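Hey, can you fold this one?
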Amino acid sequence: MMLAVKSATGSYAVAGTAMALFGAASVFLSPLRALLVDRYGPRRALPPMTGAYAVLLGVLAGLTWRPGASGLLLGVAALAAGACTPPLGPTMRTVWSELVGKREGLLQRAYSLDGVAEELLFVSGPLIVGVVVQFAPAALGVAVSAVLVAVGTAAFVASPAVRGLAGRDAGRRRGPSGGISPVRGLAQPVVVAVGVGLALGALDLLVLAFADARQHADAVAWVMAALSAGSAIGGLANGAVTWSAPARVRLPFLAAGLAAALGAAALAPGLVTLGAAAAIAGLFVAPALTTAYLVADETAGPAFRTQAGAWVNTAVNAGISAGTAGAGLLVARLPLAVCFAVAAAAPVAAAVWGVRGVRGARTTAEAAPGDGVPDAAQETGAAAR
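Sure. Predicted structure:
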Protein backbone atom coordinates (compact mmCIF):
# COMPACT_ATOMS: atom_id res chain seq x y z
CA MET A 1 0.00 0.00 0.00
CA MET A 2 2.80 2.41 0.86
CA LEU A 3 4.50 1.82 -2.49
CA ALA A 4 1.22 2.31 -4.35
CA VAL A 5 0.43 5.61 -2.60
CA LYS A 6 4.00 6.86 -3.07
CA SER A 7 3.87 5.97 -6.78
CA ALA A 8 0.53 7.72 -7.26
CA THR A 9 1.34 10.91 -5.36
CA GLY A 10 5.13 11.14 -5.56
CA SER A 11 5.15 12.04 -1.87
CA TYR A 12 6.61 10.06 0.99
CA ALA A 13 4.71 12.32 3.39
CA VAL A 14 1.35 11.40 1.87
CA ALA A 15 2.32 7.72 1.78
CA GLY A 16 3.39 7.81 5.42
CA THR A 17 0.23 9.64 6.46
CA ALA A 18 -1.99 7.17 4.63
CA MET A 19 -0.22 4.23 6.27
CA ALA A 20 -0.44 5.89 9.68
CA LEU A 21 -4.19 6.40 9.27
CA PHE A 22 -4.66 2.84 8.08
CA GLY A 23 -2.55 1.44 10.91
CA ALA A 24 -4.18 3.54 13.63
CA ALA A 25 -7.72 2.59 12.58
CA SER A 26 -6.76 -1.07 12.21
CA VAL A 27 -4.99 -1.32 15.56
CA PHE A 28 -7.13 0.77 17.87
CA LEU A 29 -10.50 -0.44 16.58
CA SER A 30 -9.44 -4.09 16.75
CA PRO A 31 -11.10 -4.78 20.14
CA LEU A 32 -14.37 -3.30 18.89
CA ARG A 33 -14.36 -5.48 15.78
CA ALA A 34 -13.51 -8.49 17.94
CA LEU A 35 -16.48 -7.64 20.18
CA LEU A 36 -18.72 -8.00 17.12
CA VAL A 37 -17.22 -11.42 16.38
CA ASP A 38 -17.79 -12.54 19.98
CA ARG A 39 -21.34 -11.22 19.97
CA TYR A 40 -22.57 -12.43 16.59
CA GLY A 41 -20.14 -15.24 15.78
CA PRO A 42 -17.52 -15.32 13.01
CA ARG A 43 -19.94 -16.51 10.31
CA ARG A 44 -22.15 -13.43 10.78
CA ALA A 45 -19.53 -10.81 11.69
CA LEU A 46 -16.55 -11.57 9.45
CA PRO A 47 -18.14 -11.57 5.95
CA PRO A 48 -19.51 -7.97 6.15
CA MET A 49 -16.23 -6.66 7.58
CA THR A 50 -14.17 -8.53 5.03
CA GLY A 51 -16.41 -7.44 2.17
CA ALA A 52 -16.08 -3.79 3.15
CA TYR A 53 -12.33 -4.19 3.65
CA ALA A 54 -11.84 -5.82 0.24
CA VAL A 55 -13.95 -3.18 -1.52
CA LEU A 56 -12.01 -0.35 0.14
CA LEU A 57 -8.70 -1.96 -0.81
CA GLY A 58 -10.06 -2.14 -4.35
CA VAL A 59 -10.87 1.57 -4.16
CA LEU A 60 -7.31 2.28 -3.02
CA ALA A 61 -5.96 0.17 -5.87
CA GLY A 62 -8.09 2.11 -8.35
CA LEU A 63 -7.07 5.48 -6.93
CA THR A 64 -3.36 4.61 -7.03
CA TRP A 65 -3.32 2.88 -10.43
CA ARG A 66 -2.25 6.08 -12.17
CA PRO A 67 -0.35 9.16 -10.92
CA GLY A 68 -2.24 12.22 -9.75
CA ALA A 69 -4.41 10.76 -7.01
CA SER A 70 -5.79 13.10 -4.36
CA GLY A 71 -3.94 12.77 -1.07
CA LEU A 72 -7.15 13.57 0.83
CA LEU A 73 -9.11 10.80 -0.91
CA LEU A 74 -6.29 8.34 -0.33
CA GLY A 75 -6.18 9.22 3.37
CA VAL A 76 -9.94 8.79 3.76
CA ALA A 77 -9.90 5.46 1.90
CA ALA A 78 -6.95 4.20 3.95
CA LEU A 79 -8.64 5.21 7.21
CA ALA A 80 -11.89 3.49 6.21
CA ALA A 81 -10.07 0.34 5.10
CA GLY A 82 -8.17 0.17 8.38
CA ALA A 83 -11.42 0.52 10.33
CA CYS A 84 -12.84 -2.54 8.54
CA THR A 85 -9.82 -4.84 8.87
CA PRO A 86 -11.25 -8.25 9.85
CA PRO A 87 -9.79 -9.63 13.12
CA LEU A 88 -8.73 -12.92 11.55
CA GLY A 89 -5.82 -13.58 13.92
CA PRO A 90 -7.83 -13.28 17.17
CA THR A 91 -10.70 -15.24 15.61
CA MET A 92 -8.35 -18.01 14.51
CA ARG A 93 -6.97 -18.30 18.03
CA THR A 94 -10.54 -18.51 19.35
CA VAL A 95 -11.19 -21.39 16.96
CA TRP A 96 -8.04 -23.16 18.16
CA SER A 97 -9.20 -22.72 21.74
CA GLU A 98 -12.60 -24.22 20.94
CA LEU A 99 -11.05 -27.15 19.08
CA VAL A 100 -8.62 -28.23 21.80
CA GLY A 101 -10.65 -27.20 24.85
CA LYS A 102 -8.84 -27.12 28.18
CA ARG A 103 -5.83 -29.14 27.03
CA GLU A 104 -3.29 -26.35 27.44
CA GLY A 105 -0.42 -28.35 25.97
CA LEU A 106 -2.28 -28.73 22.67
CA LEU A 107 -3.44 -25.11 22.73
CA GLN A 108 0.15 -23.97 23.30
CA ARG A 109 1.28 -25.98 20.27
CA ALA A 110 -1.53 -24.62 18.14
CA TYR A 111 -0.75 -21.03 19.11
CA SER A 112 2.96 -21.63 18.52
CA LEU A 113 2.35 -22.99 15.01
CA ASP A 114 0.00 -20.08 14.34
CA GLY A 115 2.71 -17.63 15.41
CA VAL A 116 5.35 -19.31 13.25
CA ALA A 117 3.00 -19.19 10.25
CA GLU A 118 2.51 -15.45 10.81
CA GLU A 119 6.28 -14.99 11.05
CA LEU A 120 6.74 -16.72 7.70
CA LEU A 121 4.08 -14.48 6.15
CA PHE A 122 5.83 -11.36 7.47
CA VAL A 123 9.08 -12.54 5.90
CA SER A 124 7.66 -13.76 2.59
CA GLY A 125 5.18 -10.91 2.05
CA PRO A 126 7.75 -8.17 1.36
CA LEU A 127 9.71 -10.55 -0.86
CA ILE A 128 6.61 -11.26 -2.97
CA VAL A 129 5.83 -7.55 -3.18
CA GLY A 130 9.39 -6.91 -4.34
CA VAL A 131 8.89 -9.35 -7.21
CA VAL A 132 5.44 -7.99 -8.16
CA VAL A 133 6.55 -4.36 -8.44
CA GLN A 134 9.27 -5.36 -10.89
CA PHE A 135 6.62 -6.32 -13.46
CA ALA A 136 3.41 -4.48 -12.53
CA PRO A 137 2.15 -1.35 -10.76
CA ALA A 138 2.27 -1.46 -6.98
CA ALA A 139 -1.50 -0.92 -7.03
CA LEU A 140 -1.85 -4.44 -8.43
CA GLY A 141 -0.44 -5.78 -5.17
CA VAL A 142 -3.18 -3.92 -3.26
CA ALA A 143 -5.84 -5.38 -5.56
CA VAL A 144 -4.43 -8.89 -5.20
CA SER A 145 -4.42 -8.45 -1.42
CA ALA A 146 -8.12 -7.59 -1.52
CA VAL A 147 -8.89 -10.77 -3.46
CA LEU A 148 -6.75 -12.94 -1.19
CA VAL A 149 -8.39 -11.60 1.98
CA ALA A 150 -11.88 -12.11 0.56
CA VAL A 151 -11.19 -15.66 -0.66
CA GLY A 152 -9.30 -16.64 2.49
CA THR A 153 -12.02 -15.35 4.82
CA ALA A 154 -14.74 -17.08 2.80
CA ALA A 155 -12.86 -20.38 3.09
CA PHE A 156 -12.29 -19.77 6.81
CA VAL A 157 -15.92 -19.11 7.73
CA ALA A 158 -17.07 -22.05 5.59
CA SER A 159 -14.81 -24.51 7.42
CA PRO A 160 -16.48 -27.06 9.75
CA ALA A 161 -14.57 -25.72 12.77
CA VAL A 162 -16.05 -22.24 12.34
CA ARG A 163 -19.56 -23.40 11.43
CA GLY A 164 -19.96 -24.71 14.97
CA LEU A 165 -19.13 -21.35 16.62
CA ALA A 166 -22.12 -19.28 17.67
CA GLY A 167 -21.96 -15.72 18.93
CA ARG A 168 -22.78 -14.56 22.43
CA ASP A 169 -26.32 -13.58 21.40
CA ALA A 170 -27.01 -17.11 20.21
CA GLY A 171 -25.40 -18.46 23.36
CA ARG A 172 -27.80 -16.46 25.50
CA ARG A 173 -30.76 -18.02 23.72
CA ARG A 174 -29.42 -21.45 24.64
CA GLY A 175 -28.27 -20.51 28.15
CA PRO A 176 -25.42 -18.80 30.04
CA SER A 177 -22.01 -18.87 28.39
CA GLY A 178 -20.02 -18.13 31.54
CA GLY A 179 -16.75 -16.29 31.80
CA ILE A 180 -15.63 -12.89 32.93
CA SER A 181 -15.24 -9.60 31.15
CA PRO A 182 -12.15 -9.70 28.91
CA VAL A 183 -10.82 -6.43 30.31
CA ARG A 184 -10.49 -7.73 33.86
CA GLY A 185 -7.33 -9.76 34.42
CA LEU A 186 -5.74 -8.82 31.10
CA ALA A 187 -3.27 -6.28 32.49
CA GLN A 188 -0.35 -8.72 32.61
CA PRO A 189 -0.49 -10.06 29.01
CA VAL A 190 -1.35 -6.63 27.61
CA VAL A 191 1.52 -4.88 29.41
CA VAL A 192 4.00 -7.56 28.35
CA ALA A 193 2.71 -7.33 24.76
CA VAL A 194 3.26 -3.56 24.83
CA GLY A 195 6.80 -4.10 26.14
CA VAL A 196 7.59 -6.63 23.40
CA GLY A 197 6.08 -4.32 20.78
CA LEU A 198 8.09 -1.33 21.98
CA ALA A 199 11.29 -3.38 21.79
CA LEU A 200 10.53 -4.71 18.30
CA GLY A 201 9.54 -1.29 16.95
CA ALA A 202 12.69 0.30 18.33
CA LEU A 203 14.85 -2.54 17.02
CA ASP A 204 13.62 -2.01 13.45
CA LEU A 205 14.92 1.54 13.37
CA LEU A 206 18.02 0.93 15.49
CA VAL A 207 19.22 -1.82 13.15
CA LEU A 208 18.85 0.58 10.23
CA ALA A 209 20.82 3.28 12.09
CA PHE A 210 23.50 0.74 13.08
CA ALA A 211 23.91 -0.44 9.48
CA ASP A 212 23.90 3.10 8.09
CA ALA A 213 26.66 4.11 10.49
CA ARG A 214 28.81 1.36 8.97
CA GLN A 215 27.81 2.10 5.35
CA HIS A 216 26.09 -1.29 5.01
CA ALA A 217 22.39 -0.44 4.70
CA ASP A 218 21.92 -3.58 2.60
CA ALA A 219 22.64 -5.68 5.70
CA VAL A 220 19.43 -4.55 7.43
CA ALA A 221 17.38 -7.23 5.69
CA TRP A 222 19.78 -9.94 6.90
CA VAL A 223 19.68 -8.78 10.52
CA MET A 224 15.88 -8.64 10.50
CA ALA A 225 15.79 -12.05 8.82
CA ALA A 226 17.90 -13.36 11.71
CA LEU A 227 15.33 -11.95 14.13
CA SER A 228 12.50 -13.67 12.23
CA ALA A 229 14.40 -16.95 12.02
CA GLY A 230 15.08 -16.86 15.74
CA SER A 231 11.42 -16.14 16.41
CA ALA A 232 10.31 -19.07 14.25
CA ILE A 233 12.75 -21.42 16.00
CA GLY A 234 11.67 -20.13 19.40
CA GLY A 235 8.01 -20.57 18.50
CA LEU A 236 8.51 -24.17 17.38
CA ALA A 237 10.56 -24.99 20.48
CA ASN A 238 7.98 -23.38 22.74
CA GLY A 239 5.25 -25.51 21.21
CA ALA A 240 7.28 -28.70 21.53
CA VAL A 241 8.06 -28.31 25.24
CA THR A 242 5.63 -29.42 27.93
CA TRP A 243 5.94 -26.69 30.55
CA SER A 244 5.34 -27.38 34.24
CA ALA A 245 4.97 -23.69 35.13
CA PRO A 246 1.69 -21.93 34.21
CA ALA A 247 1.68 -19.54 31.27
CA ARG A 248 1.18 -16.53 33.53
CA VAL A 249 4.33 -17.43 35.46
CA ARG A 250 6.42 -18.02 32.32
CA LEU A 251 5.45 -14.76 30.64
CA PRO A 252 7.65 -12.34 32.67
CA PHE A 253 10.72 -14.56 32.16
CA LEU A 254 10.23 -14.54 28.39
CA ALA A 255 10.06 -10.73 28.43
CA ALA A 256 13.22 -10.64 30.55
CA GLY A 257 15.00 -12.92 28.06
CA LEU A 258 14.14 -10.55 25.22
CA ALA A 259 15.46 -7.64 27.28
CA ALA A 260 18.74 -9.45 27.96
CA ALA A 261 19.27 -10.12 24.24
CA LEU A 262 18.64 -6.47 23.40
CA GLY A 263 21.07 -5.47 26.12
CA ALA A 264 23.67 -7.67 24.45
CA ALA A 265 22.92 -5.96 21.13
CA ALA A 266 24.00 -2.68 22.74
CA LEU A 267 27.51 -4.14 23.02
CA ALA A 268 27.67 -5.47 19.44
CA PRO A 269 30.87 -4.29 17.68
CA GLY A 270 29.68 -5.15 14.17
CA LEU A 271 26.81 -6.34 12.01
CA VAL A 272 27.57 -10.05 12.40
CA THR A 273 27.42 -9.77 16.17
CA LEU A 274 24.27 -7.66 15.92
CA GLY A 275 22.68 -10.32 13.72
CA ALA A 276 23.53 -12.98 16.30
CA ALA A 277 22.00 -10.85 19.07
CA ALA A 278 18.89 -10.30 16.93
CA ALA A 279 18.55 -14.06 16.38
CA ILE A 280 18.80 -14.66 20.14
CA ALA A 281 16.22 -11.93 20.77
CA GLY A 282 13.95 -13.62 18.25
CA LEU A 283 14.03 -16.82 20.30
CA PHE A 284 11.91 -15.01 22.90
CA VAL A 285 9.56 -13.04 20.62
CA ALA A 286 7.17 -15.73 19.37
CA PRO A 287 7.11 -17.57 22.73
CA ALA A 288 6.36 -14.32 24.60
CA LEU A 289 3.49 -13.39 22.28
CA THR A 290 2.13 -16.94 22.18
CA THR A 291 2.17 -17.09 25.97
CA ALA A 292 0.47 -13.69 26.22
CA TYR A 293 -2.34 -15.00 24.01
CA LEU A 294 -2.58 -18.12 26.18
CA VAL A 295 -2.94 -16.03 29.33
CA ALA A 296 -5.59 -13.89 27.64
CA ASP A 297 -7.48 -17.01 26.62
CA GLU A 298 -7.32 -18.36 30.18
CA THR A 299 -8.53 -15.05 31.59
CA ALA A 300 -11.56 -14.54 29.35
CA GLY A 301 -14.64 -16.72 29.29
CA PRO A 302 -15.65 -18.54 26.09
CA ALA A 303 -17.90 -15.66 25.01
CA PHE A 304 -15.07 -13.11 25.18
CA ARG A 305 -12.03 -14.93 23.79
CA THR A 306 -11.79 -13.01 20.53
CA GLN A 307 -11.88 -9.69 22.37
CA ALA A 308 -9.22 -10.83 24.83
CA GLY A 309 -6.89 -11.85 22.01
CA ALA A 310 -7.60 -8.60 20.20
CA TRP A 311 -6.50 -6.56 23.23
CA VAL A 312 -3.14 -8.36 23.19
CA ASN A 313 -2.91 -7.90 19.42
CA THR A 314 -3.68 -4.19 19.76
CA ALA A 315 -1.09 -3.84 22.52
CA VAL A 316 1.78 -5.33 20.54
CA ASN A 317 0.97 -3.39 17.36
CA ALA A 318 0.59 -0.12 19.25
CA GLY A 319 3.87 -0.84 21.01
CA ILE A 320 5.64 -1.42 17.68
CA SER A 321 4.41 1.91 16.32
CA ALA A 322 5.35 3.79 19.48
CA GLY A 323 8.72 2.03 19.68
CA THR A 324 9.66 3.04 16.15
CA ALA A 325 8.63 6.64 16.76
CA GLY A 326 10.46 6.80 20.08
CA ALA A 327 13.62 5.27 18.64
CA GLY A 328 13.60 7.89 15.91
CA LEU A 329 13.73 10.61 18.55
CA LEU A 330 16.43 8.85 20.58
CA VAL A 331 18.79 8.12 17.67
CA ALA A 332 19.19 11.82 16.97
CA ARG A 333 20.17 12.55 20.58
CA LEU A 334 21.90 9.52 22.12
CA PRO A 335 24.65 7.03 21.18
CA LEU A 336 23.33 3.87 19.53
CA ALA A 337 24.47 1.67 22.42
CA VAL A 338 22.38 3.75 24.82
CA CYS A 339 19.41 3.56 22.44
CA PHE A 340 19.60 -0.26 22.46
CA ALA A 341 19.74 -0.19 26.26
CA VAL A 342 16.66 2.04 26.41
CA ALA A 343 14.86 -0.35 24.04
CA ALA A 344 15.74 -3.20 26.41
CA ALA A 345 14.22 -1.27 29.31
CA ALA A 346 10.71 -1.70 27.89
CA PRO A 347 10.55 -5.51 28.23
CA VAL A 348 12.36 -5.24 31.58
CA ALA A 349 9.59 -3.00 32.89
CA ALA A 350 7.01 -5.34 31.38
CA ALA A 351 8.64 -8.32 33.10
CA VAL A 352 8.56 -6.55 36.47
CA TRP A 353 4.90 -5.70 35.98
CA GLY A 354 4.28 -9.28 34.84
CA VAL A 355 5.56 -10.65 38.13
CA ARG A 356 2.99 -8.46 39.88
CA GLY A 357 0.38 -9.78 37.48
CA VAL A 358 0.97 -13.34 38.72
CA ARG A 359 -0.17 -12.26 42.17
CA GLY A 360 -3.09 -10.27 40.79
CA ALA A 361 -4.30 -13.29 38.82
CA ARG A 362 -5.08 -15.14 42.04
CA THR A 363 -7.60 -12.48 42.98
CA THR A 364 -9.19 -12.64 39.52
CA ALA A 365 -9.34 -16.43 39.62
CA GLU A 366 -11.10 -16.34 42.97
CA ALA A 367 -13.69 -13.88 41.66
CA ALA A 368 -14.29 -15.58 38.30
CA PRO A 369 -16.41 -18.65 39.20
CA GLY A 370 -19.36 -16.66 40.46
CA ASP A 371 -19.35 -13.93 37.88
CA GLY A 372 -21.32 -15.54 35.09
CA VAL A 373 -22.01 -13.46 32.00
CA PRO A 374 -21.31 -9.75 32.46
CA ASP A 375 -24.40 -7.58 32.29
CA ALA A 376 -24.99 -4.93 29.64
CA ALA A 377 -23.28 -2.20 31.64
CA GLN A 378 -20.14 -4.28 32.03
CA GLU A 379 -20.08 -5.04 28.29
CA THR A 380 -20.48 -1.38 27.42
CA GLY A 381 -17.58 -0.49 29.71
CA ALA A 382 -15.41 -3.17 28.18
CA ALA A 383 -16.15 -1.94 24.68
CA ALA A 384 -15.43 1.66 25.63
CA ARG A 385 -12.05 0.70 27.01
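Confidence is low (pLDDT under 50) at residues 173-180, 364-385. Let me know if you want another pass with a different chain boundary.
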